[in-house]
Amino acid sequence: MSFELGIYHFGELTANPHTGKTASPAQRIKELIEQAVVADQAGLSVFAVGEHHRRDFVVSAPPVVLAAMAARTSQIKLSSSATVISSDDPVRIAEQFNTLDLISEGRAEIIAGRGSYTESFPLFGYDLAEYGDLFNEKLELLMQIQEQDPITWSGTLRTPLKNAEIAPRPFNGPLPIWVGVGGTPASAIRAARLGLPMALGILGGPIDGFAPIIDSYREAGAAYNANPNSLAVSVNTPGFVARTSQLARDISYPYFAAGMMENFHQRGQGFQMPRRAYDASASAAGALFVGSPQEIIDKVLRQHEAYKHERILVQLAYGNVPQKETLEAIELMGTEILPAIRRELDGRAAA
Amino acid sequence: MTQTQTPLRVVTINGSYSSPSKTGAIIDLVTETLADHFPIVTTALNLMDLRPDFALALTPDDATETAQAAFRAVENADLIVAGSPVFKGSYSGLFKHFFDLLDTYALANKPVFLVATGGSERRPLFWFLQAHVAPVGIYATAGDFDGTLILNPEVYARTQTAVADLLPLLRQYATEAEPQAVPQP
Questions:
Q1: Is pLDDT at B182 greater than 60 in this prediction?
Q2: What is the rounded CA–CA span in Å between residue A122 and residue A18?
Q3: Helix or strand or coil: residue A231?
């Protein structure tokens, strides 16, 4: 498989730090769909949208948004980043993503996550105390639905299924299910034990700082005799691209900092991102994919030496960088960055 | 700011035995953050380099002229950025020895930013010295770095907070023609 480069978006609604204005939800959805269309035309591999259940994010229903993208694109894979399976019904998830797979003629996939936000649990009647068990049981059911038709299943957290038909079936065989992992070795090892590809959310630190977790994943995969073809690693990290290094930082920083302050609620409050911290993370040693096309190419290749990963998804233009600059970034990713990465990695593989 | 500003005289004291050092990286971050607000002139004292001049001295008079110039720079500074890695549960020996040789009142009432790598608590020493220690200390651990590049945004944010806390006081020094920071013993 050729190296994949894609984009993910949370659909955050961040007030523009220069004007104080926030785009309407309708406007933001329209922009996301346009970004997917441009990413498809530029040759990028994946477009993914995340799931959040609060007013400062526009996407709570990824399959609906992805379906609109599916109708207007032809080759790009459409994914969720992530689907909070713990507070959803795997049967319904499968029905929706299988439908997306038919609309897109085989381009649907799921990144299954625990969710770093907790709003969806009370919303759908789930107990946060069962956070871990819910994820494990629902992930195994979601996998079994892909493999078994009709399905007979029983667990402890939902009603059993007996010879149940789950329709429609996907376009062309089981949907890819990735496991979203936040950085604990235990999660990585669990993904490997299940023989599933792992999408690793990396929001900072050194460009090669997660090598121990990726090593754990591959070692566990070998220990559990997972099919090597079913294991893969995706690095999911924020970033922004512009024609020059300085432009990339200057354009994206105010929006990123605003997004971290206004829409980053995991710790119960905003997260301060001073400009120097952003520049350090954007430097060659830092994890963020912010820079000129050549800088990003160099970072990806350096990271690949450590991770040997199969995919990178960039959380592009976080904090709602204006659409014009965002679309230019998507063009650069598809027309300059991805081809150069593939040339180099294919050369390394052949050598 | 419309007022004419006298550059703040900043002395940094680095107790690390490495070069380059993580402690030095954070000290640089503090001085850069200060320079966002004031013109500054910085005298950097790397105790590792200064070691031949003071390490064997038991009294200030035993130290070389170079070391005594360093002591005077500290006494005349508007503010101090004092940093050390944590060795065996505390600051480095050179770091403590440098302050042992300083005049007891050299830091009295003087603004001090404390920087530690490895995490540490050095306030008792600076309480003894009656320094005006910034309420927020700047601590970092190995995981915050790649080499000497600080990658944890929280360290940057904490530095901004530490500097912001002392801004009113520093602004006063920066606008005084003759800083009055050092009461004579």
A1: no
A2: 36
A3: coil
